[in-house]
TrEMBL record:
SMART domains: PepX_C. This is Xaa-Pro dipeptidyl-peptidase C-terminal domain-containing protein. The keyword DNA damage does not apply. Residues 294-553 form the Xaa-Pro dipeptidyl-peptidase C-terminal domain.
Length: 565
């Protein structure tokens, strides 16, 4: 690299005498993983040189490891530059990889090396405040598990369970405060960067600002087309749509402004399944991703006219209908944005309460309140720990009085909800800070309540100058018991049909443990530095009615549109 640090690479090449295009993966995990080697050989057999690189400070590479070191950007550029100068390549480079390896693609693409011609960031996160480590201000449990795994130079494995065996320990481990100490408390002593992650809880911090890539300034520097793939049950879902929209609007070249977006009924890191949790979406739900990416790279690296550039740029799978919809934009053209208003008789607590989700604005004002005690958080239902468990039944959580539920009457027709979701609401808290969490739930006639989508926001991240929308860069003041407007853009959206006779429900709460770490409500600028002894029990109130019109905006796809696609 330009600073003299050497990175270790494994190279898989076809046995030919001509220069071929190259595919690069820059990996924080073991580049010698059996599945990774199998994939590399598969592409080599189809005419590509595949380069697997250990990231700076990981495994066989030199340097110090830090997952958000801005040197990862220049390392990507330098690797592409080195590859382009090897005699066995034709100086046309693409990049592949899933999850974090999607991050490395975007970081590299933001440096605009002329030999980089296409990327395929699969299930890639956006910037750190918009998904991982922080989801609109809430610290996510999965990142703490990943942090433990990635401490030191090699994977830190303590058991056979997911995330290096750390997942079963979440409920106990995440009770430790301050959160700054959790990684060390778990025995991970070689991760000085973890403290930077916790202390840098805003996008304006020098630490996160240096590694950021989403936004007009960075997107406008990217010259290559991108294949963006996500799942409806994908931990890192928001990155794909965010980058599709950003590249289409700001890309530096016509190719960069021609991204693709695919969203299927998948969990994180795979597209080959058709069953997620207890629901089978049919064989058409599975996607042979390597075969699709081969067409992608054949076109952009080999110049093959296989038509992939002329196919619709967006393909999304609609659950319940169990079919794919295709279009040339996201959100889907023809989407009808429907408001559903919150109303009640003042007792919307639990799914058995009197909360109603109405199509018309309520004529009478009202409110609903609940107690959020950080010592007794509402529990998330994920047995595996993450949303890869699928559309789980959340009735147990909805029986907690710290959850408000607002439900429509039974639907008189099938209703397809596909696309971005917004929740505008008015709320007050007796504390100086708290979290707001809202869920979209499909309730069948038997009462089964399937969680489909989610939006969250730390209260102090609301921007008073933008209608209460999330501001990643700065905090605002929350005065106890004062009513504030909030606008939450759901980070995990859906593509699902609510069948006739089903009901649409939204749940509002302030914790979902251990999926999110608890906000201790004491108003500190950084929740990661707070001790449990300083936690505050809060009374939370959701207001609704003519003065405080609280509502959710759902993206409804007309039946005619579904039939025609």
């Amino acid at each position: 690299m330009r600073d003299g640090v050497a990175l270790s690479v494994d190279i898989y090449r076809p046995n030919v005498d001509v220069a071929v295009p190259a595919l690069l993966s820059i990996i924080p995990y073991a580049k010698g993983d059996a599945e990774r080697i199998k994939q590399a050989r598969w592409y080599a057999a189809r005419g590509y040189a595949v380069i697997l690189a250990d990231m700076r400070g990981r495994y066989d590479s030199d340097g110090q490891w830090d997952p958000f070191d801005p040197k990862h950007k220049s390392d990507g550029y330098d690797l592409v530059d080195w590859i382009s100068k090897q005699g066995w390549t034709n100086a046309r480079v693409g990049m592949i990889g899933v999850s974090y390896v999607g991050w490395t693609q975007w970081w590299t693409a933001s440096q605009a090396h002329p030999a980089l011609k296409a990327i395929a960031p699969i299930m890639s996160p956006p910037d750190p405040m918009d998904n991982l480590p922080y989801q609109q201000g809430l610290l996510k449990g999965v990142f703490l598990d990943v942090s433990a795994c990635l401490s030191g130079r090699v994977m830190q494995i303590i058991g056979s369970e997911p995330y290096c065996g750390f997942r079963p320990r979440r409920s106990q481990d995440f009770l430790h405060t301050p959160y700054l100490e959790i990684n060390r408390q778990r025995g991970m002593l070689d991760a000085p960067w973890f403290e930077k992650v916790i202390r840098s809880n805003l996008s304006s911090s020098a630490y996160f600002k240096a590694i950021g890539y989403t936004g007009a300034e960075s997107w406008s520097k990217i010259t290559v087309p991108s294949l963006n793939v996500a799942g409806w049950f994908d931990e890192d879902q928001p990155g794909a749509a965010m980058n599709y929209i950003g590249m289409k609007r700001y890309g530096a070249t016509p190719e960069a402004k021609s991204p693709k977006l695919i969203i299927g009924p998948w969990p994180h890191a795979t597209t080959s399944v058709s069953k997620v949790g207890n629901v089978d979406y049919g064989p058409q739900a599975a996607l042979d991703l390597d075969a699709y990416m081969l067409r992608w790279f054949d076109h952009y690296l080999k110049g093959v006219d296989n038509g992939i550039d002329r196919e619709p740029s967006v393909s999304v799978f609609v659950m319940g209908l169990n079919k794919w919809l295709s279009a040339n934009d996201w959100p889907l053209p023809g989407t009808q944005w429907k408001k559903f208003y919150l109303t009640s008789g003042g007792s919307a607590n639990t799914a058995s309460g009197d909360g109603v989700l109405a199509k018309s604005p309520p004529r009478k004002g009202g409110s609903d309140s609940y107690i959020y005690d950080p010592a007794h958080p509402t529990l998330s239902p994920y047995k595996g720990g993450n949303i890869e468990d699928g559309a789980l039944d959340v009735r147990e959580a909805e029986a907690d009085k710290s959850v408000l539920a607002y439900t429509t009457p039974p639907l008189d027709r099938d209703t397809a909800v596909v696309g971005p979701i917004k929740f505008r609401f008015f709320a007050s808290t007796s504390a100086r800070d708290t979290d707001w969490i809202v869920h979209l739930v499909d309730v069948d006639p038997d009462g089964h309540a399937a969680l489909l989508a989610e939006g969250v926001m730390r209260a102090r991240n609301r921007d008073p100058e933008k209608g209460g929308a999330f501001n990643a860069a700065r905090l605002s003041e929350i005065v106890p018991d004062q009513v504030y407007e909030y606008m939450i853009d759901f980070w995990r959206v859906t593509g699902s049909v609510f069948r006739k006779g089903h009901r649409i429900r939204i749940d509002v709460q302030s914790s979902y443990y251990p999926y999110y770490l608890r906000n201790l409500n004491n108003g500190a600028d950084n929740i990661g530095l707070v001790n449990a002894a300083d936690a505050v029990i809060a009374t939370q109130t959701i207001h609704h009615g003519p003065r405080y019109p609280s509502y959710i905006v759902l993206p409804i796809i007309p039946k005619g549109k579904l039939d025609s696609e």
